[in-house]
Amino acid sequence: MELKLGDIAPNFKAQTTLGEIDFHEYLGNSWGVFYSHPADYTPVCTTELGRTAQLKAEFDKRNVKVIAISVDPIESHHGWIKDINETQNTEVNFPIIADPSKEIANLYGMIHPNASDTLTVRSVFVIAPDKKIKLTLTYPASTGRNFYEILRVIDSLQLTANHSVATPVDWKDGDDCIIVNSIPTEDVPARFPKGHRIVKPYLRYTPQPNK
């Protein structure tokens, strides 16, 4: 099954390093970042899990719960976490799913079709509180994910979900936004009291509404 943006993230029950969870119940009313690793004790993923733990305060600030998955068993996860904590100078503080049957990995299309029938690709799903998938990313095993980019995207998703704006190229929190084209120009002053500037009729900027 190929999951697309706007699809409901499939629910599942799983064993994790923090106990058994029901995925949708775990997310509750929070946003979610759900991401996969090819296997335990892999070098790039060791650094990624460490960075995620170090950024917990940033995820908490955005009402985001993080959960990772690997097809290795739970005992392997616990041993790997010790290595992550040691080498990345952190404490892993979020659940890692054990998926030795690959059932969840297959449910989310995480099995690498061109490399192995056991290794998951390094996928990322950002899920909104309504359980809809808002972003997907897939990385090769050789390239570490940028979790600051994931935070930047979450900032954009949360902003644009609540205001009639889009975010331009290289946008970061605090930058000007683009007024969506569905807003008539004559309505712009009332809708965006912080001001606006028109570059082209279809390209209109306003200061970030929620700042």
Summarize the structure.
This protein is α+β, with helices and mostly antiparallel strands and 211 residues long. The chain has seven helices and eleven strands. 30% of the residues lie in helices and 24% in strands.
Could you tell me the number of beta strands? 11
CATH topology of the largest domain: Glutaredoxin
In terms of DSSP E residues, the strand content is 15-25%
Number of domains: 2
Keywords:
alpha+beta; Antioxidant, Horf6, Chain A, domain 2; 2 domains; four-stranded antiparallel beta sheet; 7 helices
Describe the structure.
This protein is α+β, with helices and mostly antiparallel strands and 211 residues long. It has two domains: 7-158, Glutaredoxin (3-Layer(aba) Sandwich), CATH 3.40.30; 163-206, Antioxidant, Horf6, Chain A, domain2 (Antioxidant, Horf6, Chain A, domain 2, 2-Layer Sandwich). It is 30% helix and 24% strand. The chain contains seven helices and eleven strands. The strands form two sheets. It has a seven-stranded mixed β-sheet. The chain has a four-stranded antiparallel β-sheet with strand order 8-9-11-10, covered by helices on one side. Helix 2 crosses helix 4. The longest helix is centred in the last third of the chain and has 16 residues, at 147-162. It is elongated. It starts with 12 loop residues before the first strand and ends in a 5-residue tail after the last strand. The model has no long low-confidence stretch (mean pLDDT 94).
